[in-house]
Amino acid sequence: MSETVLQEALDTLKTSGVRITPQRHAILEFLVTSMSHPTADEIYRALEDKFPNMSVATVYNNLRVFREAGLVKELPYGDSSSRFDFVTHHHYHIICNDCGKIVDFHYPGLDEVEHLASHITGFQVDTHRMEVYGKCPDCAENKTNSVVQ
Questions:
Q1: Which residues belong to the annotated binding site?
Q2: What is the pLDDT along the chain (149 residues), one digit of tens a residue?
Q3: 9-16 — which CB contacts under 8 Å span 24+ positions?
Q4: Please, what are the domains in the chain?
Q5: Binding residues for Fe cation
Q6: Which residues are annotated as a binding site for Zn(2+)?
Q7: Which UniProt keywords apply (predicted)?
């Protein structure tokens, strides 16, 4: 499945006139297969052995191109490092306050919020974003284990 998604993303870039360089292909493939909402630095570190001449700036520039093409969302969450999410479908995020882990979830009922907001305010709504914060199971377990010891 990720091969099909990757090919569709590459086709989208080509259609918008973006040249597909080996670095662009690798960054996009990393985003498609990654479930971790990586930072630009994490993408750079994951690909630096394969592309020793690639810089962090190259990663940022390509992420900007992907964002402008509608393939990637930038998630500017609290830790001052933006994380990047390959756009597969409309979804929300739950974020661990301790380790920063981000997990996707979908709840169709929240789509009605846009309609309601538009109806009440008269705004033409483009999009909405929601984050839920808490403690992931790993951090909750580690806290429990450290209290017991």
A1: 90, 96, 99, 128, 136, 139
A2: 578 888 888 998 999 899 999 999 999 999 988 878 899 999 999 999 999 999 999 999 999 999 999 889 888 766 667 888 887 667 788 888 898 888 888 777 777 888 899 999 999 988 777 888 999 999 998 876 555 55
A3: 9/71, 9/86, 12/69, 12/70, 12/71, 13/65, 13/66, 13/69, 13/71, 16/69
A4: 1-88 (1.10.10.10), 89-137 (3.30.1490.190)
A5: 90, 128
A6: 96, 99, 136, 139
A7: Cytoplasm, DNA-binding, Iron, Manganese, Metal-binding, Repressor, Transcription, Transcription regulation, Zinc
